[in-house]
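Why HAD family hydrolase? Reviewers of the renewal asked for a concrete example.
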Amino acid sequence: MGYDLVIFDNDGVLVDSEPLANNVLAGYLTELGHPTTYEESVRDYMGAAVHRVHELVLERTGQRLPADFDETLHARTCAAFEQELKPVPGVEEVLGALTAHGIGYCLASSGSHERIRVGHRVAGLDGWFEEEWIFSADDVGRGKPEPDLYLHAAGQMGVEPARCVVIEDSLRGIQAATAAGMDVYGYTALLPADQLPGATGYFGDMMQLPLLLQLPV
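Here is what the prediction returned.
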């Protein structure tokens, strides 16, 4: 079917930030006395807002993270982005195809607005997204895997959920989109399809997405 709105996750879908962000998070948690590997960070926190880190550490250890944890993590993540962040290969071609065919798009991310904007500036994507097309878990009470963020994005863009399709690379994101009543395509560049159950379909190369969306490049 055709769609009226394409909602992109940000980290790992628009910008190649997941390896950078999870290395930073794993290193910081380990430094604080909570040994965490990169693989464990991806498994436990990918696609989630930062409050999940606090909740899981408290649940597992009975200890609270420092009061300045979010601020320090944000600063370290943005510093890593400034050094190395790149756009996901092919994503600008996809955005160009959507624009050419008059299909609306936006993004809905677990990251903060500032983190999104820093990433887009460094990766060269800031010209593709108007401010009113950017939605963060900070805008809603509950982040992924709850449907709130995707429903909020659809509502603000004026499109019924059934006319939206989500592009995700995390299980929590797929669960959120499904709960919102939206189709969702799983991008498997980082995690294989068997770790992303429940999607409408899967693709491993961003240049495959226009065909899935019935948009010739």
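The mean pLDDT is 94. This is the kind of structural detail the renewal will allow us to pursue systematically.
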